[in-house]
Amino acid sequence: MSVTEADPVAAAAPTRPAVLRVLSAVWRSYAFRRILKAVLTVYLVATFTFFLVRLLPGNPVEVYINTLMQQNGMSYDQAANMAKALYSFDPGKPLVVQYLDYLNGLLHGDLGNSIGSPGTTVGSILVAYLPWTLFSVGIALIISFCLGILLGMAMAYRRNGVIDHVLSVIGSLLHSIPNYLLAIMIVVFLGIQLNLFDVSQMRGAYSPGVTPEFSADFFSDVMYHAGLPITTYVLTTIGSWMLVMKSSTVETLGEDYVTVAKARGLRDRRIATAYVGRNAVLPLFSQLAIAAGFVVGGSILIEQVFQYQGIGYLLFRAVNDRDYPLMQGIFLVITIAVVLANLVADLLYGRLDPRIRIGGGER
Amino acid sequence: MTATVGTSTLESPTVVRKPVRPSRNVVRALTRSRSGTIGFVLVGLIVLVSLLGPLFTPDTLPTDTSSVYLPPSASHWLGTDSSGRDVLIQVINGGRTVIVVGFAAAILSTLIAIVFGSLAAYLGGVVDSVVTAATDIVLTVPQIALLAVLSSLYHLDNSLLLASLIGILSWPTLLRAVRAQVLSLREREYVEAAQLLDLGTARILSVEILPNMASFIVMNFMIGMTNAIYALVGLYFLGLAPLAGHNWGIMLNEAWTRGAIFDSDSVFYILSPVIAISLLQLGLVLMTRSLEELLNPRLRQD
Q1: Is residue B60 classed as helix, strand or coil in its secondary structure?
Q2: Can you give the pLDDT at residue A164?
C-alpha cells in the first residue's frame, strides 16, 4: 500500500493524513463503489455492442458495404466511405483506433447517423422517443408499486381472510399472464368486441395536430394515448408486488420489535406504518429497479401492440429496417436506463437501510 | 411412508442427515397445497397433450380458401384461421416447440446458475468476486431488446440456438439465489463434518449441499421456464424469429397481423394461443408459489 502511494504523498506531506483519509473514505463508501460498478457496466455493454456490430461474421457494416456495391454499383472504396459516414468509423483504421473513436463519440453523445432516416442523428431520434417510454413506464410503476404495497399489507394483516384469498388468486393470475398477451386481450375484447374505445385513435404518443406544450389539454391527450400501455403495465406488475409485499409483511410481523411495540401499547396504525410497513417495504426497492429494467426492456412488445411511439416501438422499427446505428443506440440507451434504475434503487436502499451502509459489502 | 421416515431417524440419530430421494420430496411438495396441485395438473396436462397430441394429428394441414375465419363448429371446434386451417389442431401441435425450448433454456440457465453460484459461495475469494460482478452485469442487460437486436443479425430459426440464447441471458437471478442458499448451507454441521472427512469440493457440493436444495432448484427452474416462454413467444409474436412451422407464438403473430382481431368470428382463433400460453404460465407460477410456501413456512396458509 504505502509504496504505491509514495509519489503524490511526498509532494503534499503535511496534508497527507486528511487527503488519504478522504480518499480511503471515498473508496470504502458504498455509493462510490456502486457508481463505479454502474459506469463499468455501461462501458462493457458499449464495448459488447461495438464488437457485435463490427466484428462478427456477417456484421452489418460489411453487409451494408456489399449491398451498396451490388445495388448502386459503387466501388468498394465508395461504399466503404458511405458506411464510414453512417457508422462513424473508418474500416481502414486499426481496430484499436476505431474502438477509441467510437468510445470518444459516445462520450460526446455521438451515436452516429440513422440509416432508415438519412441525415438524422441517432441521438435526435432517441430524444424524440425515449421520454414517452420513461413517462408511461414510470407512471405505471409508481401506481402499481403503491397499490401493490397497500394491497399486500392488507393481505398480510387479513391472512386467510376473504381479501387474502381473492387477492391471492387475482395476483397469481395477473402475475402469470405475459403482459403482451394481456395487451392483446385488452385490444381484442375492450377495443374491438365491446367497442369501448377506438384503439386506432389511441395509437401514437399524442394525437396528430396537437403540439407538445405545458397545458391541461396536452396532458389529457397524452394520458389518453398512454392509458392503455399504463393499464397493461400496472395490471401485469401489481400481482407480484402484492405477493412479495404480503410475504415480506408476514415476515416482519413475526419480528421481536413488532411484538415489543404491541406490548408497549402503541396504536395499531402507528405499528402498521412506522414499524411493519417501513421495514417490510425495504426489500422491495431493489426489486423495483429490476422491474423497471424488465418493463423498459419489454416495452418493445407492449408498444408494438398499442403502437405507442416510445423506444420499444422504435427498436422494433429499427430491427425491421436493419437500421444498425439506431439499434445500437437504442440498446445502449435501454441498458443505461436499466443500470441507472439499479443504481438509484441501490443507493436509495443504502440510505433507507443502515445495515447496508455499515456492512459496506454484501455480507 | 411414515414407517420409513421412522426407521431412518432411528438408524441415524446423528447430525449427518441426508435426504432420501429428493425427487419424491419435490413431487410431494408440489402437490402439498391445493393451488400447487392445480398447477401440477395443469402443466402436466398441457405437456402431455403437446408432446403426445401431434402423434394423432396430421403434420400439415390442408389450406382451404373457402373456409377462412370460420367460427367454432362441430367440424372445427375452435374455428379456422386465415388459410382455412383448423385452429384446434394447431393448438395441439403448437405447444411442443414452446415447451421444449422453454425447458431447454431453463435447464441451461439452471445449470449455469447452480455450477457457478455454488462454486462462488463455497470457494469465496476471487472466484466469488468475479462471478458476482459478472452476474451484476448480465442482470442489467435487457433480454428482449438484446434478442431483438440479435434476431436482425442472425436467423434465429434453430430451436436449439433460441434456447441457448435465452438460457445464456437468464441465469443471473437464479445464480444470486443459489449463492445465497449455499452460503447459508455451508455453515451446517453435516457440511462441516464432510469437510473434516476431506471429501473434496465437488463431492461435498453435489452430495451434501445441492440435494438439500432440490425444491429450491426446481422452483427456480420453473421461474426460468416461465421467463423463457415469455421471451420465446414474444419473439415469435413480433415476428423476429422466422415464422416456420406451427407453434403458439406463430399462431399469435398470424392472428394479429392478418386482421383476425377485427373479425368477431375469429375471437376463438386469437384467444386459443393466448389461453394456452397463459394456462401453461399460470400452472408454472402456481407450482412455483407452492414450493415457495414450503421453503418459507411463514407463508403457509394451512
Answers
A1: coil
A2: 86
The set of long-range contacts for B235-241, using a CB threshold of 8 Å and a minimum separation of 24, is: B235/B144, B235/B147, B235/B148, B235/B151, B235/B156, B235/B162, B237/A180, B237/A301, B238/A300, B238/A301, B238/A304, B238/A316, B238/B148, B240/A319, B240/B147, B240/B148, B240/B151, B240/B152, B240/B156, B241/B151, B241/B156, B241/B157, B241/B162
- Cell numbers for A19: 487527503
Which of B137, B148, B154 is the closest to A44 by Cβ? B137
CB spacing of B153 vs A304 below 8 angstroms: no
Residues 267-326 on A with a CB inside 8 Å of B are 290, 293-294, 296-298, 300-301, 304, 315-316, 319, 322, 324
Cβ-proximal residues to B257 (8 Å cutoff; 6+ apart), any chain: B239
Domain spans of chain B, in order of start: 30-299
Picking from A159, A232, A300, A306 by the largest number of B CB atoms within 10 A of its own CB, the best residue to mutate is: A300
Residue contact B278–A176, C-beta within 8 A? yes
Cβ distance of A297 and B261 shorter than 8 Å: no
Mean pLDDT of A93-112: 79
In angstroms, the CA A356 to CA B291 distance is 29
Architecture of the CATH domain B30-299 = Orthogonal Bundle (1.10)
In the predicted model, is pLDDT for residue B17 greater than 60? no
DSSP-assigned letter for residue B260:
G
The answer for A 194-223 residues in CB contact with B (under 8 A) is none
- Domains along chain A? 1-53+330-363 (no CATH), 59-120 (no CATH), 122-321 (1.10.3720.10)
Cell of A60: 452489418
Cβ–Cβ gap A188/B267 under 8 Å:
yes
At residue A288, the pLDDT reads 81
Judged by CB atoms closer than 8 Å, whether chains meet at B148 and A251 is answered as no
Q: Pick the residue with more confidence: B69 or B52? A: B52
Calpha distance B294→B302 (Å, rounded): 11
Q: Please give the Cα distance from A83 to A325 (Å, whole number).
A: 11
pLDDT mean over A219-242: 86
Predicted complex ipTM: 0.81
Residue A28 has which C-alpha cell? 470504502
Distances (CA, A) of A148 to A23, A175, A274, B61, B111: 42, 12, 18, 46, 33
* Mutation choice for A interface testing from B34, B140, B274 by most A CBs within 10 A: B140
**For A308-344, what is each residue's pLDDT tens digit?**
888 888 998 888 877 778 888 888 888 888 888 888 8
pTM for this entry = 0.81
B137, B148, B278: residue with CB nearest A181:
B278
Cα–Cα distance, A141 to A230 (Å, whole number)? 9
**A49 grid coordinates:** 455492442
Helical packing angle, A311-321 and A278-306, nearest 10° = 40
Highest mean pLDDT among A232-246, B196-210, B287-301: A232-246
Asked if A56 reaches chain B (Cβ–Cβ under 8 Å), the answer is yes
